[in-house]
Amino acid sequence: MNNNIEEIVREQARAAKEASRRLAVTSSAVKDAALRAMAEALEENAAKILEANAGDMAAAREKGTPRAMLDRLMLDEKRIHGMADGLRQTAMLPDPIGEGEMETIRPNGLEIRRVKVPIGVIGIIYEARPNVTADAAALCLKSGNAVLLRGGSEALQSNRAVSRVLVEAAEKAGMPKGALQFIDSASRDAVGVMMNLTGLLDVIIPRGGAGLIRRVVTESAVPVIETGAGICHTFVDEGADLDMALRIALNAKTSRPAVCNAMETILVHEGVAKEFLPKMAKAMREKDVELRGDEAARAVVPDMAVATEEDWATEYDDLILSVKIVKNIDEAIAHINRYNTGHSETIVTNDLNRAHRFQREVDAAAVYVNASTRFTDGFEFGFGAEIGISTQKLHARGPMGLNELTSTKYLIFGEGQIRA
Amino acid sequence: MNNNIEEIVREQARAAKEASRRLAVTSSAVKDAALRAMAEALEENAAKILEANAGDMAAAREKGTPRAMLDRLMLDEKRIHGMADGLRQTAMLPDPIGEGEMETIRPNGLEIRRVKVPIGVIGIIYEARPNVTADAAALCLKSGNAVLLRGGSEALQSNRAVSRVLVEAAEKAGMPKGALQFIDSASRDAVGVMMNLTGLLDVIIPRGGAGLIRRVVTESAVPVIETGAGICHTFVDEGADLDMALRIALNAKTSRPAVCNAMETILVHEGVAKEFLPKMAKAMREKDVELRGDEAARAVVPDMAVATEEDWATEYDDLILSVKIVKNIDEAIAHINRYNTGHSETIVTNDLNRAHRFQREVDAAAVYVNASTRFTDGFEFGFGAEIGISTQKLHARGPMGLNELTSTKYLIFGEGQIRA
User: Fold this and answer.
1) Confidence bin at A208 (pLDDT 50/70/90)
2) Which CATH topology does A232-375 take?
3) Do A369 and B393 touch (CB under 8 A)?
4) Given this model, what pLDDT does residue B6 score?
5) Considering CB atoms only, which of A217, A370, A376 is closest to B221?
6) Phi, psi for residue A379 in degrees, rounded to 5
7) Domain A3-226+395-413's class?
8) Does the beta-carbon distance from A394 to B395 stay under 8 Å?
């Protein structure tokens, strides 16, 4: 462990904590003006940011970075406007802070209210996308939280440029100094330091690949909100509208295969497999999807690869689909509850009872009837923004918007009451 | 690590997970009947439980266990009736499961609802009190959660007797087999195993001393809800009703000094110190409270011990009170936010502005105006029960009742919608 990086990160967290006290009582008007100023500043400084990004891109190309990652790393005028628009949209959302959740007068006359307050200091650990720097800052600051950002080393120059612009604009617009902190270091030790900042950081939200998330969940002493892993299923029930089922399956698999709400496995009721599977196989293959089936599925569509135990437990994030025929809804629910990651699941059915059972018994953040799993998203749910999709059950489950970045506080008024 | 204990605990957690699926869809009627049957069974088997407890007590006395711990360990007829009454009261509370939290129809016609669901499997790690076995079981089962209990080794015989009675009664009354699990082992390794049961345990709630809580928070890979630490303050403002301030301070310090919502430090505005402190010192000493003051406080009441830096950061849990004179509310708030544990804080004041500022700016689960901090409690807040008081900001903050033992799930109905 590099002592220097430890001291630097700890000092940033201390400053963020200090700022969070003032930020918690900063008005919506000031916060929103700051977000708009930050948007403006990004656009004004686009040239500087693109220059920094060109540096990251050149270094990444030299290292032979895969194309998909280069795409995530790349900024252009359009993406910078996208970041600015995100900031402006967040400014327009209602401020959750201060909202009353309950209010009661106890028999002894004590008046008890529960209101939304900021969480405090939020640590975000992310990977290659520099736009997360602006998106995460916007959501955390709007909800009254100070934020300590740690981006991937491959995006260091871009993130440095973006965060400098944002910090300067935010402070000029009246935000508490220190509320937005970016860890300007490529050292991997920074993540280890963050995970031990109990008392300074209130939560860490890792955004990135499975490896990063697993590490943070396992090692962090600071509470973590787990996001992102998605092994999502579509179950095509007996008696389902098979045209609808095909549309939903194609959308769930192919509209954006690398995202967490894309489908990885399709479960087909044995009563409709002979009719549905050949059509589905044809349509999927036209979209370049590789199919891997269980024995029963391969009996219907013989030219599929064999799905192994590992397939059921894999998030492909790619144009691959595993296919399984099930006897009934019980087998479908059991398979899903065994292999899913608690993200999004859907049933295509016309049967009210089975729709109801599926929604009650499947254990996931979002359980659909007759719709694509691809809708699990803060924007699609109407939250106006999203910091990630929680796949855990504590604090927040499913898409996390501004409300999910708040905590609560009990405010109690008395007239001298003491406890018997 | 004892492999045997690891395998046993993991198998219990697996069985609990399995049971949690069925418990999540078990009706309130069945759950409530089971809680009442468990209450009955405790009373019917009181003799057997008391015999087991006598064994624990004898062993504890032989080891020279302190009197306070012996008192926590001890069961008698009255305490067994208390446990049974707790179960019956929990049966009478409204079942939170299925309660709608929001409902919206999106522009594309998708109907999205968010409803309360059980968390899944809750691990409870506790120390000497055998009554926690019944209390925790009641709250977890009522809220549809399976529960894995790990009590202190000194209460092993008592907990074994209580849990056997409860498990038998619960299953006979129709609760899913395996929903209530007690780890029947004195091995300390059991705690280590529990903390690594990601995927099987959804949350661990440690209930006990600071050492246990610190260990679980630091080491657990399973999410943790931190409870219990309480360095609570009373701030006596200038212009406060000093008789009220004295009543509140005495109640907060002396009514039950060993609990987490008791006061540890009193902050007194310099404008009222000369009038208030001598009276307070006299009254506190009549209740056998030892006083430790800062320099300014000792200038007013000279025969106090010296409060050191360590005193401000100590939860005495005893008849000791540290005393500090502050210049104004700013200094009071700054002191509290530096040393408190996020539990309960109170201001005694007549000034509306300062009351408001104190509530907004003090960072704690419960912030009082003109009332004793001793009210922070699930029963006093009207929740009907309590599994602990959360001092963290994620998921739940303050007293945790049945609602705080739930998660949520999004249920979405469509008519074939796919995402553009």
Assistant:
1) confident
2) Aldehyde Dehydrogenase; Chain A, domain 2 (3.40.309)
3) no
4) 93
5) A217
6) -70, -45
7) alpha beta
8) yes
